Prior knowledge:
Elements: E1 3-12, E2 15-24, E3 35-41, E4 48-51, H1 53-61, E5 65-66, H2 68-76, H3 79-87
Parallel strand pairs: 1-5
Antiparallel strand pairs: 1-2, 2-3, 3-4
Amino acid sequence: MAVKIRLKRMGARKAPFYRLVAATDNVPRDGKTIDELGYYNPLKNPPIVNINEEQVFLWLRRGAIPTDTARSLLRNQGLLRRWDAMRKGKPESAAPAEESLSSPR
């Protein structure tokens, strides 16, 4: 059984609220989880994302694989860039600066 970092849907109908969790890949989306890593509220403007970085790095070290949506949230928070720098043995300050989401391409 592989462990995945994914979103668990909470909240009322038409008012979604998500928790970022570590769960095995064979449990349902809203089923039993191993650990809660943070939350994401897409209804606020701007969306609210609160992630416990230490817990995320702990699970990534243990081999957890983020789903596409969870990977997107981690990337937007700059955690994946820091994780890559940590894996390569570089200090966090050596990681490139986080790109702005509003920058033109």
